[in-house]
Amino acid sequence: MSVLLLTRSAATHETVVALCAAAGVATDVCADPSLSLGSWGDADLVLVGADLAEEAVALAPPRRAGVHVVGPSPGDAAFRHAVALGAASVVSLPEATSWLADALADVGERASPGRVVGVVGGSGGSGATTLACALAQWHASRGPTLLVDADPLGPGVDRLLGLEGRGGVRWEGLAETSGRLGARALREGVPRDGALGVLTWTGLRRRLDVPTARRMLDAAVRGHDLVVIDLARQGGAASVELVDRCDDLLVVTPATVPGLAATARLVADLGRAGRAGLVVRPGGLSDADAARVTGLPVVATLGEQRGLAASVDRGLGPLTGRGPLARTVRDLLAAA
């Protein structure tokens, strides 16, 4: 059972059951509040009809989250009963149908937000997109994972994973919608390969705005265990929004003088001391040099992976075996 509905009102019953059916959510309708106590604590969402709210209060059910009083034009009594039940809100139907539809869209989803890991290149061609793809591939065998392509000038993470031909919603489609985005709708709507979903771009003209980025990430963390974001080095306000929402930020840099100089400038703009770390690729300088120049700790050293280019060209993605790349992403996700 997902939704428990207490009502004898035909109008409330018709509205709520139709919305639940549209959201693919199971509904248990009960016309006698005394028979609902056994299900009260098990339902993901409890909707108490305003017509039965007084009877429900008299039963003194245990306080819990996810309780709402619903009904057509609820009066002052409905609000008093909502307070007595510990309800989160009083919902007027059908006026608030869109709000209830949004709430139903996330029924049965995870209670706590998933982890967000951002990956950004300290300099051009550092391999940040490759690392982001590898992180997502590795974790997808363990739980629902979303790889977000937030770099308008990047190659497209779907191409690195061989998913460019898969159907599904892209950034452009999200930008054309408004309102709250459901976690299930996003998870099931993007191009997927098993537990791995990819949000990327359709055409060559790419632009990401802050409201769309915010709506996407809110839904992404509700519907996935891990969200990996391939960040742009210079992405404007939307990129700043995404960086600020990352739990962990990995900055990929070559251990060269030009690479570290560019990375140091990027790090100064990020302002993420304490939650960011360096992933260093081989070069003429040491890990200690990289840490000293950038001010960030080195969390991993990424060795060369034989056959990487061929694997990507074949549409298999960068992570195909147990080489140094696999060990690096495993350790990064275990430690962060």
Automatic annotation (TrEMBL):
Coiled-coil zones: none
Signal peptide annotation: none
Organism, as annotated: Nocardioides glacieisoli
Pfam families in the record: Rv3660c_N (PF26563)
Biological process per Gene Ontology, one example term: negative regulation of cell division
Xref: InterPro entries: P-loop_NTPase, ParA/MinD_ATPase, Rv3660c, Rv3660c_N
Residue ranges constituting the Rv3660c-like CheY-like N-terminal domain according to the UniProt record: 8-112
GO cellular component: cytoplasmic side of plasma membrane; cytosol
PANTHER family: SEPTUM SITE DETERMINING PROTEIN, SEPTUM SITE-DETERMINING PROTEIN MIND HOMOLOG, CHLOROPLASTIC-RELATED
GO molecular function terms noted in the UniProt entry: ATP binding; ATP hydrolysis activity
Name this protein carries in UniProt: Septum site determining protein
